[in-house]
């Protein structure tokens, strides 16, 4: 029987949850690498080996399977529907957050953890009201409703919220974009939250609840991050675990490497690989805690792939059997810095590329690409992508998402229940079952409560 079990696990067969011999996890750390496909992981590993001298990623030791990412409305999901699948165990339409295809609210893993008396936290490098974190703490028909999402997040009583995006917590007169005039940071402080706006504040003694917002919008890409002002994803993960770990009934924590996705949309390979590596460092923090704790399940997954990344590509009509991480290592800024600098220095673009992209001199073809893009921001971005891509032998097929399966990783109690290939909503249901969460009953209660409020 034991040999049969090992054989089944080795070929990717996942046993029913009730057949698992492991104990139920006390804590769940769900990590989501937004927009990170299998090629992104390979890129980060190759870069780490060639440039940083590392042999492997923290993720490499815990890979258990793959996830299929289609939403209810498309084979290519968006982040809202993708995150809802993990948060609620259902497929919904693109743009929806923790509601079903009829627009009805569905309970989330975070809400189920709160219902069981656990502590909860959300960490992201995007605005904290962006699609992925929002799917765990708000119920809205469209992800763009970030002012409403901020209100619902604070109403949840979440112990730790760390990320960017004070925009949706403040009115315009105070540097935000809320149209209702409310200052949610002041209201959160009145609820007992410690409000943190700078990295230096993390060195002070903190107790939950904590609301840390370190930028008006998204946090900077890792390649651009001011390490004196903005915490890394690993640092925020470490703080969240420290704040939540003492809770006697355990905790649920969702950590998102959000800007991996944004760099994929921009086809910005140098920013993309740095953010994947920053995410892997956060995974290492979670794994270090889980290994010492022995009661924590760490799961890492992506909601979808972004950009259609390839390592190796055609150059001048010929397939090149290589790719060069060292080209990306010489790039010292994301497109968010590079493109404005190129536009502002139209007469001296070579100097900008030398300083920020590590390109000492342009070929005649590269110069022609830049000249043809003059005055057209989209064409300039495409030209820069082609110049860096040709040199690194890296390609992209899209400025959007793709339908590629994404890698699944797990470590800790219950990890063997996640071996295999699953639909994204099935992964959400498996996580709920492993934690003993009854999402169906909680959903019924949630809907009854809303009906009661409407009368």
TrEMBL record:
Protein residues bound to Mg(2+): 34, 130, 132, 256
Keywords from the named record: Hydrolase, Magnesium, Metal-binding, Phosphoprotein, Signal, Zinc
SMART domains, per database record: alkPPc
InterPro entries: Alkaline_phosphatase, Alkaline_phosphatase_AS, Alkaline_phosphatase_core_sf
Signal peptide (from-to): 1-19
Domain of life: Bacteria
Entry note: cofactor: Binds 2 Zn(2+) ions. Binds 1 Mg(2+) ion.
Active site: 79 (phosphoserine intermediate)
Binding site for Zn(2+): 34, 261, 265, 303-304, 401
Entry cofactors: Zn(2+); Mg(2+)
Molecular function per GO: alkaline phosphatase activity; metal ion binding
Assigned protein family: Belongs to the alkaline phosphatase family.
Protein's name according to its UniProt entry: Alkaline phosphatase
Annotated organism of origin: Rhodothermus marinus
């Amino acid at each position: 029987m034991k040999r049969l079990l090992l054989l089944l696990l080795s070929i990717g067969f996942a046993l029913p949850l009730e057949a698992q011999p492991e104990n139920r996890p006390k804590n769940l750390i769900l990590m989501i690498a937004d927009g990170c496909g299998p090629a992104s992981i390979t890129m980060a590993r190759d870069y780490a080996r060639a440039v940083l001298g590392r042999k492997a990623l923290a993720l490499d030791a815990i890979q258990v399977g793959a996830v299929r990412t289609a939403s209810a409305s498309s084979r290519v999901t968006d982040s809202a529907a993708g995150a809802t699948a993990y948060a609620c165990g259902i497929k919904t339409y693109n743009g929806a957050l923790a509601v079903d295809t009829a627009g009805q609210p569905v309970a989330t893993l975070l809400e189920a953890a709160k219902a069981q008396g656990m502590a909860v936290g959300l960490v992201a490098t995007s605005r904290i009201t962006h699609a992925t974190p929002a799917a765990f703490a708000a119920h809205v028909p469209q992800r763009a409703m970030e002012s409403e999402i901020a209100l619902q997040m604070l109403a949840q009583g979440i112990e730790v919220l760390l990320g960017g995006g004070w925009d949706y917590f403040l009115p315009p007169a105070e540097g935000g974009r809320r149209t209702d005039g409310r200052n949610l940071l002041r209201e959160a402080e009145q609820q007992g939250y410690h409000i943190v706006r700078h990295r230096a504040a993390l060195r002070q003694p903190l107790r939950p609840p904590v609301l840390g917002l370190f930028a008006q919008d998204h946090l900077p890409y890792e390649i651009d991050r001011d390490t004196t002002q903005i915490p890394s994803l690993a640092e925020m993960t470490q703080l969240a675990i420290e704040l939540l770990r003492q809770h006697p009934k355990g905790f649920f924590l969702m950590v998102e490497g959000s800007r991996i996705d944004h760099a994929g949309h921009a086809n910005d390979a140098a920013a993309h690989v740095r953010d994947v590596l920053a995410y892997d460092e956060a995974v290492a923090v979670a794994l270090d805690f889980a290994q010492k704790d022995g009661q924590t399940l760490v799961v890492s997954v992506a909601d979808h792939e972004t950009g259609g990344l390839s390592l190796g590509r055609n150059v001048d009509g010929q397939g090149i059997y290589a790719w060069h991480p060292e080209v990306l290592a010489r790039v010292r800024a994301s497109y968010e810095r590079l493109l404005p600098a190129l536009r502002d220095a139209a007469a001296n673009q070579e100097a900008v590329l030398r300083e920020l992209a590590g390109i000492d001199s342009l070929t005649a073809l590269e110069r022609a690409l830049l000249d043809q893009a003059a005055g057209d921001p989209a064409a300039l971005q495409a030209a820069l992508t082609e110049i860096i891509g040709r040199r690194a032998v890296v390609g992209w097929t899209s400025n959007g998402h793709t339908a590629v399966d994404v890698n699944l990783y797990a470590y800790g109690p219950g990890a063997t229940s996640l071996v295999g290939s699953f639909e994204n909503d099935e992964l959400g249901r498996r996580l709920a079952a492993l934690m003993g969460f009854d999402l169906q009953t909680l959903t019924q209660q949630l809907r009854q409560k809303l009906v009661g409020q409407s009368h």
